[in-house]
Amino acid sequence: MSDGSAWQLVIGGDAGLYAIVWLSLLVSVAAVALASVVGLPLGAFLALVDFPGRTTLVVILNACLGLPPVVVGLAFYLMLSRSGPFGFLGLLFTPHGMILAQAFLVMPIVAALTRQSIEDLWREYREEFGAMRVTPLRRIAALLWDARFSLVTAVLAGFGRAAAEVGAVMIVGGNIDGFTRTMTTAIALETSKGDLPLALGLGLVLIALIVAVNALVWGVRRIGERAAG
Amino acid sequence: MRAEPSNLPIVFDDVSLRVGAITLLDRIGLGIPAGSPTVLVGPNGAGKTSLIRLGMALAAPSSGHINWGGREQPHMARCAMVFQRPVMLRRSAAQNVAFALVAAGRARSGGRIAALLDQVGLAPLADRPARRLSGGEQQRLALARALARDPEVLFLDEPTASLDPAATKAVEDIVVSVAVAGIKIVLTTHDLGQARRIGGDIVFLVRGRVVEHAPAERFFTAPATHEAATFIQGGLVL
């Protein structure tokens, strides 16, 4: 194994490698999008609405931040397997099943960080919105919008977890070559096979992708913050 | 078209406000009538802010009753408030006014937004992020947001406390102009000069109690209480 061979795979545009990269991106981005659709409003709701059991829900949500991916993977495996309650959907060993499992892992991160951001902003806005008699729904929308730059960080944290996750996608996706193999599952497999150049090449791409996405979002955030004040 | 109910006079009948063991307001009996501005003066901790928060129905009294034009609840659509440190939404000045218009159930009209910004002298800064405005400009923007509600009563809580003289004058000019236009002003301040410049009648509070309530001219020339006389002369009222 040499670093040179790893770089050759990356720079040489190896088709197998790029198929894996593409699927990984697709699964991670879709999972984060799905998690955000649920997590952003859920976090805002928990920050702004007081109801019986809210504290318990917040504690459960925070506890979910530490969910072991392999356990989530196992739970989804059981639910999506042919004899499971959602087996009829035929999602086991498909990218769609992997997206669902990852979204479940990412959603608590997005919701918990959103709740914290919105709660902080709400402390600042409470009196003003009270005087303006802003309705609860408009309150949620306004706070989500005004906290948008902090929420980008929440979504990025979710993307980080999704991109680096291996346990759940391995179990739910099955690591099928050309169909459900992602960068993380491929790295694990290739390492166990002793194909370290490919494993290292994938690792380099994975790190580069995470850095690139973070840099891009950071840049967009800075420009947005400058424009919005 | 049916006329909207009036919030005036606002009558505080034996109103107290307590937080735990601390009494912020103690058996307040006070009428705030329509007409010239009512200015609440007094040292820090006198209860000025607590009183206008009750007047704005942002808090409920611990005991006693408040009524607005004879009703138990104010007609909130026609009340507005400007805080000492207004919170600017993270958007442009014009979008801040637009938000206030929509929150008040009014049309988000470009013409109305421009007119409100013009009224407070911020038309040239319409597209500037509100949080980038100076303290005085932010306070004027808060006034524009309050005026977007087309209020009958405008509560102002120490609106110029942290502003320099030029910014203070700009805010006071707007307050006086809207008072002349018929909006009832209820303003708190510990700046006696400001109370003289704006006040129609003065409510002097000390330690949660109304010590004196009189027309401004009489309050400043012939205060009825020793505490008021001491305060006017710049003495410490504790």
Helix segment count of chain B? 8
- DSSP helix count of chain A? 10
How would a textbook summarize the main sheet of chain B?
6 strands, mixed
Write the element-wise H/E pattern of chain A from the N-terminal end onward.
HHHHHHHHHH
Helix content of chain B: 25-40%
Q: Which strand-content bin applies to the residues of chain A?
A: under 5%
Strand content of chain B: 15-25%
Q: Sheet bearing the most strands of chain A, described? A: none
Protein described:
The complex is a heterodimer of chains A (229) and B (238). Chain A contains ten helices and no strands. Chain A has helices spanning 3-11, 15-48, 54-63, 69-80, 95-132, 136-146, 148-164, 167-173, 183-193, 196-228. The longest helix of chain A has 38 residues, at 95-132. Helices cover 79% and strands 0% of the residues of chain A. The mean pLDDT of chain A is 90. With 238 residues, chain B is α/β, with parallel strands linked by helices. Chain B has helices at residues 48-55, 93-103, 110-119, 135-147, 165-180, 192-198, 216-221, 226-232, and strands spanning 10-19, 22-32, 38-41, 63-68, 79-82, 153-157, 184-189, 201-206, 209-215. In chain B, a hairpin with a 2-residue loop joins strand 1 (10-19) and strand 2 (22-32). The longest helix of chain B is centred in the last third of the chain and has 16 residues, at 165-180. The termini of chain B are far apart. The mean pLDDT of chain B is 94. The chains are: A mainly alpha (229), B alpha/beta (238). Chain A binds chain B through residues 124-125, 127-135, 138, 142, 145-146, 148, 227-229, and chain B through 56, 58, 76-77, 80-81, 83, 86-91, 99-100, 102-104, 128-132, 145, 149.
Topology:
The complex is a heterodimer of chains A (229) and B (238).
Chain A: H1 3-11, H2 15-48, H3 54-63, H4 69-80, H5 95-132, H6 136-146, H7 148-164, H8 167-173, H9 183-193, H10 196-228
Chain B: E1 10-19, E2 22-32, E3 38-41, H1 48-55, E4 63-68, E5 79-82, H2 93-103, H3 110-119, H4 135-147, E6 153-157, H5 165-180, E7 184-189, H6 192-198, E8 201-206, E9 209-215, H7 216-221, H8 226-232
Helix pairs in contact in B: 2-3, 2-4, 4-5
